[in-house]
Amino acid sequence: MDPILELQDRGGVARVDTLRRAGVSTYALRRAREQGWILSVCRGWVALASADPMLVTAARRGVVLSCVTLAARRGLWVLDASDPHVAAPANSGHAKVERGVIHWNEPLFPRDPDSCEDSIENALVLVARCQPHESALSVWESALKKGKLDYALLSRTPLPPVARRLLAEARPFADAGTETIFFTRLRWLKLQIVPQAWLLGHPVDFLIGDRLVVQIDGGHHVGAQRTSDIAHDALLKLHGYHVIRVSYAQLMDHWPQVQALIMAAVAQRLHLAR
């Protein structure tokens, strides 16, 4: 059995015992090491020379990638994944990290001992415990939107209370976490707020009441996308809608001003049909 192919099938990092059970001989492993094709990571683990450094480090440290780090690796919207978040069993004595956050916990879903990555379900539970509510909800809604979260499965699972609350709140409508954050911060308004409302041939991020449109710009609102957005804004205004466009920086760094702007529009009844 070729150790290179076996390692490739297992993400580039694997336990030596697992490779041997798969039929890789001791001689083949030793020869692959001598040729520089695979490297010894730590006692009992080997990796391809080209393996993902994060997976190699996780194996070396005795942890699994989880929480926001795993969420970001799965393509979910994460507010901040600059510091690695990893997980290890509560009774683990050898797990350690030099930078980032380590979550000592007993996983809700059993962890595969041959994987250096947690399951998405375990990662979401840790996100619920680790992140502020609106940031955690953004990740959960992103998982729903992208089909990474099995709602029915989790609803039958004994989730901790904070995760159960997120599961109840999460909706699969937000294209980005900024939309989740905006909606969460204005939920107290007690007005009808429709995400991803379809108006005049295009979706808008939010329709408040009958006529107040709020668009939240991300980093992709440049070039042709920006031109299309401006054209649609003009069309909306011609049809009697009031449009407020908010940048990422305004939403995240200057929320009081954004809220005041929306409140002023509501006070002038710009959200109502004339």
Question: Can you put this structure into words, describing what you see?
Answer:
The structure is a single chain. The chain has helices spanning 3-9, 16-21, 26-34, 53-61, 67-73, 120-130, 133-145, 151-155, 161-169, 177-185, 223-238, 248-253, 255-267; strands at 13-15, 38-42, 45-48, 64-65, 85-88, 101-104, 193-199, 202-208, 212-216, 242-246. It is built from 13 helices and ten strands. It has 274 residues and is α+β, with helices and mostly antiparallel strands. Helices cover 44% and strands 17% of the residues. It has three domains: 3-51, no CATH class; 62-169, no CATH class; 177-267, VSR Endonuclease (Endonuclease, Chain A, 3-Layer(aba) Sandwich). The longest helix has 16 residues, at 223-238. A hairpin with a 3-residue loop joins strand 8 and strand 9. The mean pLDDT is 89.
N- and C-termini, Cα separation: 74 Å
* Total beta strand runs: 10
Number of domains: 3
Number of helices: 13
Q: Radius of gyration, rounded?
A: 24 Å
Instruction: Bin the strand percentage.
Output: 15-25%
Helix content: 40-55%
